[in-house]
Amino acid sequence: MTVYILGDGAHGRDLADIVKAAGAVPSMHDDHNGQPLPADVSFLIGIADPHARAARDYPGNQPYSVRHPSVIGFAAQSFGCVVGAGTTIGPGVELGRHAHIGAGCTLTRTTIGDYCQVAPGVDIAGDVTIGDRVFVGVGATIRNLVTIGDDAVIGAGSVVLHDVPAGATVVGIPAKVITRRAAA
């Protein structure tokens, strides 16, 4: 089976490695700089930025989701989800449309929205809800009954113990808001 990947940069190449490990053949394509995509082909979107990924999606795009064979556990997932090597998925995990989960993550009782990017080594557990187009940096930890608003950015290595407003950027241990922008 051939899996089309829209975006031939570093993130697209990372997705291609996962596609190969899953036993399919990746077919890499330039991101077309926002040009219309062929209507008869479904693409994984190999662009790391959640906003750019959302902008490149189109009605009718229904790619299958792919996970590295070393992933432990299963999640309820929408179209186009990608889960990296060595990730552990516990009970109660739901992944939104084109959500990308990096290598070595741990997810339990978590809902992740559409077009989110979760970088490698992230630990999320305890009835966490993550909105749409959220970026979670490498090695971040999100714990217990936390809601992350749409378009938020969680800095690398941050420990999130409280809700994060939509459009906010948080960093630190414990994570604190450093900037806010209007949600898309």
Description of the molecule:
There is one protein chain. The chain has helices spanning 10-21, 50-56, and strands at residues 2-6, 25-29, 43-45, 66-67, 76-77, 82-83, 88-89, 94-95, 100-101, 106-112, 117-118, 123-130, 135-136, 141-143, 147-148, 153-154, 159-160, 168-171, 176-180. It is mainly beta. An 8-stranded mixed beta sheet has the order 4-6-9-11-13-16-18-19, covered by helices on one side. Strands 5, 7, 8, 10, 12, 14, 15 and 17 form an 8-stranded parallel beta sheet that branches. Strand 18 (168-171) and strand 19 (176-180) form a beta hairpin. The longest helix has 12 residues, at 10-21. The protein is globular, with a radius of gyration of 16 Å.
Question: What are the SSEs and their pairings?
Answer:
Layout: E1 2-6, H1 10-21, E2 25-29, E3 43-45, H2 50-56, E4 66-67, E5 76-77, E6 82-83, E7 88-89, E8 94-95, E9 100-101, E10 106-112, E11 117-118, E12 123-130, E13 135-136, E14 141-143, E15 147-148, E16 153-154, E17 159-160, E18 168-171, E19 176-180
Parallel strand pairs: 1-2, 1-3, 4-6, 5-8, 6-9, 7-10, 8-10, 9-11, 10-12, 11-13, 12-14, 12-15, 13-16, 14-17, 16-18
Antiparallel strand pairs: 18-19
Q: Which regions contain 5 or more consecutive residues with pLDDT less than 50?
A: none
Give me the strand/helix succession: EHEEHEEEEEEEEEEEEEEEE
Major sheet summary line? 8 strands, mixed
Please identify the structural class as seen in this structure: mainly beta
Globally, the shape reads globular
Please state the average pLDDT score: 91
